[in-house]
Specification:
Length: 283
């Protein structure tokens, strides 16, 4: 006759198996498109036509070479870097300074100003993207790297400020008071005392913003109309329109687009997880 303890232990094991099974199913569903893209990109063109859903049934770099040269993805990759890195750096720099200001500096209207900034999270980009187009054209920033970097940065400042404020708010005031007594200026206090303590949050914000801007399709498509600069997302769209039958090079272009993001996230996964968990606890 089984005891209640044994019954409970059996139910717990069944529950754990069920959870693990569900996680395996969800992982397979999530990874299947990525694995199929990698498999298709690394096949021979003939194998892609004959066996499109076969996983790694052959190996060839021809599709990647075609996408890199004929599809001009080497130029798109450089343009993506020129659009993503400066805008990400701008978001992190301004968000950390704004988060510090709203969290640690007392000034009239601070709460109202903070909620006005956070209000940007509630305003969809679609509501002002057309007026912004004409504003950029009037300022001579349309179809320029500077203009698109400013637009990409503006879309991430509201979240970045809200995110970084949570880190600065929870820091002990004793550190700040001790630094002021020692004669530290406001800038020295921010750079030398506060910033090292919120490094995980700034790193998480940088990775999140980088991924968001790297994958952004609408902003480059709308504000780079003449094609002087084309990131990977818009390049992939044009490649699809011009060579829609070439599934192999199309998959190779997709692989080139997603590979830098995957590598970045894998390398910084620990920092990103720590940053977001710390922000959730402190917020």
């Amino acid at each position: 006759m089984s005891t209640p303890t044994n019954t409970l232990s059996g139910r717990r094991r069944v529950g754990l198996l069920g959870h693990r099974g569900l996680l395996l199913v969800l992982s397979f569903i999530s990874l299947f498109p990525v694995l199929l893209t990698v498999s298709t990109a690394l096949k021979t063109p003939e194998d892609v036509q004959v066996n499109p859903f076969g996983f790694f049934s052959s190996f060839s770099m021809e599709n990647i070479a075609t996408a890199w040269t004929v599809g001009n993805f080497r130029s798109y990759l450089l343009d993506s870097v020129l659009l993503t890195v400066p805008s990400t750096a701008l978001v992190v720099a301004l968000s950390t300074m704004a988060g510090y200001t709203f969290a640690r500096l007392a000034f009239p209207g601070r709460t109202v100003a903070f909620y006005l900034v956070v209000l940007g999270l509630l305003v969809p980009f679609f509501t002002y993207m057309i007026p912004l187009y004409f504003q950029l054209r009037g300022l001579g920033l349309l179809d320029t790297l500077l203009g698109v970097n400013l637009v990409l940065a503006s879309t991430g400042l509201a979240f970045g400020t809200f995110f970084m404020r949570a880190f600065f708010t929870d820091l002990p005031t004793e550190l700040e008071q001790a630094a002021r007594i020692d004669g530290a200026s406001e800038w020295q206090l921010f750079v030398r005392i506060m910033m090292p303590l919120v490094g995980s949050g700034a790193g998480a914000l940088a990775v999140f913003t980088f991924i968001q801007n790297w994958n952004n399709f609408l902003v480059p498509l709308l504000y780079l109309p003449n094609g002087a600069y084309r990131p990977l997302t818009t390049g992939l769209y044009l490649f699809l329109g011009g060579r829609s039958i070439d599934i192999g090079p199309l998959a190779a272009g997709t692989l080139i687009t997603i590979l830098p993001v995957i590598v970045l996230f894998v390398l910084l996964q620990k920092q990103v997880t720590q940053g977001f968990l710390s922000g959730a606890v402190k917020g």
